[in-house]
Fold this protein.
Amino acid sequence: MKKTTKWTMTAMVLLFVAAIASSAFGFGWGRGPGCGGGSCAGFLGYPGLNLTADQKAQLEALRAEQLKATESLRTQMLAKRDALRALWLEATPDQAKIQAAQNEMRTLRDQLQEINTSFRLEGLKILTPEQKEQLKTNAAGRGGFGRGRGFGPGAGPGTCPGGNCPGR
């Protein structure tokens, strides 16, 4: 009986840790850099925007800048996630340590969200009013824009023509 309870408790703790980790990293992060629709950088993933070459270059530069600006925070979040996982897997988890680690992750996530919001707003400034309207139309059918890392839908690996997505 005790063996079954121990395994059940372990499974519940692991599921809880997985839920915490996935919620921490699921907030606005996709698998890929937002490739789709034959293009590869954020808003470029939305068909019908008809971006000019200059707009594409500006958005790609903004995307690269965003990745560079968030690199340290993303690395810190990965380390905090691993530390939190280790705290949960201790024989007697310490509630105060776990809550402190969760608060640190929340702080990092908030900082990431602020940076990503600033970059999205900068990206919107590059679009024409007609492109913004088209973006609204596209986003309505997709559940919103910016679901990938950064500006785009986060279609994931392998969706860029020739596999040459910026940031990879």
About this structure: The chain has a mean pLDDT of 74. The helical segments are 2-26, 53-88, 95-126, 129-142. Residues 53-88 form the longest helix (36 residues). The chain has four helices and no strands.
